[in-house]
Design goal:
Residues 42-80 form the RNA polymerase alpha subunit C-terminal domain. By secondary structure, this protein is mostly helical. The protein is built from 5 helices and 2 strands, in the order ββααααα. It has helices spanning 26-32, 44-52, 58-61, 66-70, 79-89; strands at 6-9, 15-18. The chain has a two-stranded antiparallel ribbon with strand order 1-2. β1 and β2 (15-18) form a beta hairpin. The radius of gyration is 15 Å and the shape is elongated.
């Protein structure tokens, strides 16, 4: 059963519809998207989830296992190859 979308307004006044309880505004997400770095390569939900957990650098990401990262709400398996490649480019990897 599909949830009904409700109209929401963010703190900046952007109007958008969402069916989930996720409070992030799509317009604000686009405005706040980093222009470089590994976070710029991820989807908004994955990026927001990592930042919410305090993981905003590759060094911080490398302190976690892939399993721990996948447990974070907003991170899906499609994000792992992007993160893995970004870590490898800097000579890092996920914690074993």
């Amino acid at each position: 059963m599909k949830e009904e979308k409700s109209l929401r307004v963010c703190e900046k006044g952007h109007k958008y519809y969402k069916s989930s309880e996720c409070p992030s505004c799509p317009t604000c997400d686009k405005e706040n998207k980093p222009k470089s770095g590994f976070l710029s390569k991820l989807s908004s939900p994955a990026r927001n989830a990592l930042v919410h957990e305090g993981i905003d650098t590759l060094q911080e990401l490398s302190k976690h296992t892939e399993k721990e990262i996948l447990k974070i709400h907003g991170i899906g398996p499609a994000s792992l190859p992007i993160m893995r490649t970004s870590l490898e480019e800097e000579g890092l990897s996920f914690k074993e």
